[in-house]
Write a structure and sequence with these properties.
Pdz3 Domain, alpha+beta, single chain, six-stranded antiparallel barrel, 2 domains, Thrombin, subunit H, 8 helices, about 400 residues
Length: about 400
């Protein structure tokens, strides 16, 4: 019985559909009059009356429009040898970090994505840069162009040209390039770093993963970050604006489009952004740039000592007071500035020119900022007695393995 009913239903449905097909073909108006499958004759929509030239409230378009043309893409290539397959785009070079430790899986410099190029290709690094002067000077990271025999720069308008390396400073990871092109974009405006506050909105501009110029936004998470083991001299701006491989050397700007930092590194396990990025503050980058343009390198002070952090074990081993402050001098370079005035291993260095020294980073920065050839007063604690030494500051060698 059920089978019979189903057969009748199928036959009726087939006849009905056939009838509708015939009517819609021969008499389409008949279906319209019956309101069966009636087409919509008109559509009413609400459209915005705001023109395309009006910027949305809260937009950072004006800041991006002002600063983005000055951000460029940088390609480095080595002609003398092929790309090393062991190069890891998410790992800094050994010369840029202390001896290997657990930080190696966290801190990542950006060499771009070499997997986008065949291994036999001479192109091995990509990054970003910022035009900072009408003379064609470009600021970027040292690690972006490190080891490159040929450096090319691509502007936002599509033009490409070769760049000349004016100089670089591995200790701060800053490099200065120069290009010679007519009608360059307006150089980016440098901000006053003293106007930057934690919580300020910032924009990171660069070329992540080689996809093209990209803007991400965030805030200034912290200022003066150091002791990270990324560079020899550290004073980073921390931001949560997304920074990814290829952003290295790009611009970190404020909401007025002014440069506040050069994007450099991220805190990440995977190599992708996890909301913790670091940028070199514009004042430090500018200081390095001026020294490079003037002399071709960066000149820093040096006294020739090997310092050691104080720890409970060190304090106990050297029979120092429990509340001791400063750094222990564990070694003195022969004929160096410190050795010449009588500073010895085992001395506790507490002050440089009345500035308290609490750790190695304090000592490194205090001495590096001194002009070579000038005198500096070092306060030393030796077996419970305080001695003051007038040291003639030397010039810090370029190698990162030298004593302080």
């Amino acid at each position: 019985m059920a089978k019979r009913l189903w057969l009748i239903f199928a036959q009726v449905t087939t006849v009905f559909l056939a009838l509708i097909f015939v009517i819609s073909t021969l008499k389409p108006n008949l279906l319209s009059s019956l309101n069966i499958f009636s087409p919509i004759s008109s559509i009413t929509l609400k459209e915005s009356s705001v023109g395309s030239d009006v910027v949305s409230p809260g937009s950072y378009h004006d800041a991006v429009k002002l600063s983005m043309p000055a951000v460029v893409n940088i390609f480095g290539s080595r002609t003398a040898e092929p790309v090393a397959k062991s190069r890891n785009p998410h790992k800094s070079k050994p010369s840029q970090k202390p001896t290997p430790n657990s930080q190696e899986e966290w801190f990542n410099f950006f060499f771009g994505d070499p997997n986008s190029q065949p291994d036999e290709s001479p192109e091995f690094s990509t990054g970003s840069g910022v035009i900072i002067s009408k003379e064609g000077l470009i600021m970027t990271n040292h690690h972006v162009i490190e080891g490159a025999d040929l450096i090319e720069v691509a502007l936002g308008d599509g033009r490409k040209t070769k760049a000349v390396l004016v100089g670089s400073d591995p200790d701060t990871d800053v490099a200065i390039l120069k290009i010679d092109l007519k009608d360059l974009p307006e150089p980016i405006v440098l901000a006053d770093i003293n106007s930057v506050r934690v919580g300020d909105v910032v924009l990171a501009i660069g070329n992540p993963f080689g996809v093209g110029q990209t803007v991400t936004s965030g805030i200034v998470s912290a200022l003066g970050r150091d002791h990270l083991g990324i560079n020899t001299f550290e004073n980073f701006i921390q931001t949560d604006a997304a920074i990814n491989p290829g952003n290295s050397g790009g611009a970190l700007v404020d909401t007025q489009g002014r440069l506040i930092g050069i994007n450099t590194a991220i805190f990440s396990k995977s190599g992708g952004s996890m909301g913790i990025g670091f940028a070199i503050p514009v004042n430090l980058a500018k200081q390095v740039m001026e020294s490079i343009v003037k002399t071709g390198s960066v000149t820093r002070g040096w006294i020739g000592v090997e310092p050691r952090e104080l720890s409970p074990e060190v304090i106990k081993a050297f029979d120092l007071p429990e509340n001791s402050k400063g750094v222990l001098i564990s070694g003195v370079l022969k004929n160096g500035p410190a050795e010449k005035v009588g500073i010895k291993p085992g001395d506790l260095l507490k002050q440089v020119n009345d500035k308290s020294i609490n750790d190695i980073r304090d000592l490194l920065n205090a001495v590096a900022n001194l002009e070579p050839g000038t005198n500096a007063n070092l306060s030393i604690d030796r077996k419970g007695q305080t001695f003051n030494f007038a040291v003639v500051i030397g010039t810090r060698p370029s190698s990162k393995e030298v004593k302080r």
